[in-house]
Amino acid sequence: MDATAIHQRLSARFGNQVGECDSQAKDPAIAVLPEAIVPVCEFLKTEPELAFDALSNESGVDYKARGVIQVVYHLYSYRHRHKIVLKVDAPRDRPVIPTVESVWKAANWLEREIYDLLGVTFAGHCDLRRLLMPEDWVGYPLRKDFVEPEEYHGISTRRESLIK
Amino acid sequence: MSLAGYEIEVERVAGTGLATEAMTLNMGPQHPSTHGVLRFVVKADGEVMLEAIPDVGYLHRSIEKISEKVGYHGFMPYTDRVDYVAAMFCNQGWAMVCERLAGLEVPKRAEYCRVIAAELNRIASHLLSVGTMVLDIGAATPFFHAIREREKINDLLEELCGARLTFNYMRIGGVAWDLPPGYAEKCLAFLDQFEPLIDEYNDLITNNKIYVERLADVAVITAAEAVNYNLVGPNLRGSGVQYDVRRGEPYSVYPELEFDIPVGGGEVGTVGDCFDRYIVRIREMQQSIKILRQCFKQIPNGPVIAKVPRKFKPPAGDAYIRVESARGDMGWYTVSDGTEFPYRCHVRTGSFSAMSILDKASRGLMIADLVAVISSLDIVAPEVDR
Questions:
Q1: Looking at the complex, does the CB of residue B101 fall below 8 Å from at least one CB of chain A?
Q2: Among residues B381, B374, B351, B378, which one has the least CA distance to residue B42?
Q3: Mean pLDDT, to the nearest integer, of A88-98?
Q4: In B, which residues are within 8 Å of A132 by CB distance?
């Protein structure tokens, strides 16, 4: 099933909670409102004609100019061999998105990683802790306005250039 | 400590009235069998694991952040470090996502060169995986056999790109150089010598009773679980799901090549146990040999790199590419804002999802089995941490 058809199915079911379908993009993507992401994902997974049984990837992108952090879901169906991208925008100053961990277990670690590096809070996540950075790290490294700290526990992060 | 809430019934010391207590153990970050800086916080009752929580991030180097600073061409050598034992696939994934963003066409000969490099690397990576797996379980000799053959592949890859570990052969738009003269003959000679050795390995380890007993029925992952946790590559196929990105979402010249997708069938135990994940890798090496032979037969003449501007500026947009790495489906999500630097790049790797299922897969097993589970899932630490 192609992106336009999937978008029609979603619009018929969820109305204006599902936004535009960008079918001209390299990977056609459907915009979804944060509050609708869990029912939309459940629908995509359980509907037999869609059967998106795998969450291939979940990434966060900081669009500083637009003031949003976007979480991008790449879904894949092993049964039908088709794919779709969902995009959820959350305000940059208070990004909260419900977790899709109940739909795909793979989201557990992927969301922890996004929380760790971009500071998106996934509401309802069972174990939202930092994954890659130390637990006491301040700030979110993949945000565009992240400034590298001068030192960490007394260890300087500055190094003199080897090239004089 | 109360053990209520755990699914596992732990046998009490009968007749003594002694209560047992759960004990917390640290395995790693430096442990001979974790092959890299990996830490597990194991809660155990005697020798039975109640939990094995992976603690990752010791090797985190912010490769994704680096990509935003060094530009598209400049990021290529960094991709090797994502998975240093199978670097060719990282190269290929990055090159492909850039080409997709810019709409570049790669010359046919370059695609064949890429497949040759990638499949050689797959054999090398699987040899290391299988070899260390046997080593972790307690047999050293097969490991040396595997490493000896891997050295020969390293020689071949060194001739191709100059490196013996962080191979770097591919470029955006093609490959760095053409194959050196006489390369096909050398590779084919190696394959002729290596192919019968796989049967010898099988005699030595695959049918070895001790080895089978250690792996059969251990850490069974069902097909539904594997898909739900998004296990990929040999781990997914070990659970009986016949899926390979090379066939499911064909890229490069794979549609022109003939090969099978081996899946685990529960030959000595249950489908999806450690043995199935092991045997899938052995059979994949045989398929790679088959692919390589066809490549050398079919490779056309022509250029090996497309015309790519030095200042590579793909138009704004995003793209997602998946390649079948030695550790499975490796996803590259890249956002371009039309400048020389990627706006955002996210790598999704096979070891990442394998690591997330480890706690679930190892509950109720013995501590000694954890080693077998880690190596059967073929986890490479920098691939988890990036």
A1: yes
A2: B374
A3: 89
A4: 56-57, 60, 385-386
Across the range A74-80, mean pLDDT stands at 88
Would you say residue B339 has pLDDT above 80?
yes
Tell me which residues of chain A have a C-beta less than 8 Å from any C-beta of chain B: 25-27, 53-57, 59-62, 72, 74, 78, 81, 83, 85, 104-106, 108-110, 117, 130-134, 141-142
Q: Which of B273, B259, B258 is nearest to B216 (CA)?
A: B273
Question: How many angstroms separate the CA atoms of B233 and B280, rounded?
Answer: 10
pLDDT at B357 over 60: yes
B222 touching A (Cβ < 8 Å): no
For residue B175, what are its two tokens?
């490959």
Write phi, then psi, for B123 (nearest 5 degrees).
Answer: -60, -45
The answer on pLDDT for B18 being more than 70 is no
CB B194 within 8 A of CB B152: yes
pTM above 0.90, yes or no: no
How far off is chain B from A116, nearest CA to CA, in Å? Answer: 11
Task: Choose the closest CB to A56 out of B318, B319, B331.
Answer: B331
For the cut 50, the answer to whether the pLDDT of residue B6 exceeds it is no
B278-309 pLDDT, tens digit per residue, is 889 989 999 999 999 998 888 888 888 888 88
Give the helix/strand (H/E) hosting A97. Answer: strand A96-98
Nearest to A55 among B62, B230, B385 (CB): B230
Q: Does B352 touch chain A (CB under 8 A)?
A: yes
Nearest chain A residue (CA) to B100: A26
Residue B138, φ and ψ in degrees, nearest 5 = 130, 5
The per-residue pLDDT for B8 is 45
Dump the DSSP string for B275-315. HHHHHHHHHHHHHHHHHHHHHHHHPPPS-SB----SS--PP
State the pLDDT at residue B17: 61
Residue B231 has pLDDT above 60, yes or no: yes
Shortest distance between the Cα of B55 and any Cα of chain A, in A, equals: 8
Phi, psi of B108 (to 5 degrees): -60, -45
What are the start-end ranges of the H helices in B16-163?
63-70, 72-79, 87-102, 108-137, 141-161
Mean of pLDDT values over B209-224? 86
B319 contacts A26? CB cut-off 8 A: yes
B356 and chain A in contact, CB less than 8 A: yes
B146 to each of B128, B140, B290, how far by Cα in Å? 7, 10, 19
8 Å CB contact between A127 and A112: yes
- Whether residue A61 and residue B344 make contact (CB cut-off 8 A), yes or no, is yes
Interface A–B counts its CB contacts (< 8 A) at 85
Q: What does the pLDDT read at residue B202?
A: 84
B329 contacts in chain A (CB < 8 Å) = 56
Report the alpha-carbon distance of residue B348 to residue A59 in Å, rounded.
Answer: 9
Supply the DSSP symbol for A154: T
CB–CB contact A59 B346 (8 Å): yes
